[in-house]
């Protein structure tokens, strides 16, 4: 597999992912667990952040200096399932701005269709944290990355719960520079494009839709 893929392994994450997979997990619990996992993905995505600045502050005891994040990443949600991750990631990086990309795969034209694109001003050179719970065929993520690169953004990191091996290979065929952070790589997809064993349609389970 080409490209950088970071599989975050931790007993708590395995426990939480197991509940996401369970078809009996209700929508409210699914949302809450998605938020919990998203915070950890954001934490890991920022682990090597080196754009920091030193500022002077005063504690209740004495004057000192501290470090703060400079030039924070833009958090981008791939609608609609990415919205289940967005607030949690922003809660970890509250100084970040947010963008939204609405893309779906149209089975009749066998291609992706963009219906919404809204970004903050001046995203040129900005690092992007691209949020989508599932990376299956990778068609949507590839289309989203294509659009972001038209704006000459900086490094792009994809945050997802689970990803397919074939989807990762396809993403990195077109965009080998994109880093993916996930909890697990699934070996299989079924004929409908769902990950196996997967967790079903994340958007439907988040928002109780069909």
UniProtKB/TrEMBL annotation:
Name what cofactor the protein needs: Mg(2+)
Protein name, UniProt field: Uracil phosphoribosyltransferase
The record's section on InterPro entries has: PRTase-like, PRTase_dom, UPRT, UPRTase/APRTase
Query: What EC number(s) would the UniProt record show?
Result: 2.4.2.9
Q: Which source organism? A: Bacteriovorax antarcticus
Top-rank taxon, per record:
Bacteria
- Similarity comment text for this entry: Belongs to the UPRTase family.
Is the keyword Transferase assigned to this protein?
yes
GO MF term (any one)? uracil phosphoribosyltransferase activity
All residue ranges annotated as the Phosphoribosyltransferase domain in the record: 7-209
Q: Does the keyword Flavoprotein apply?
A: no
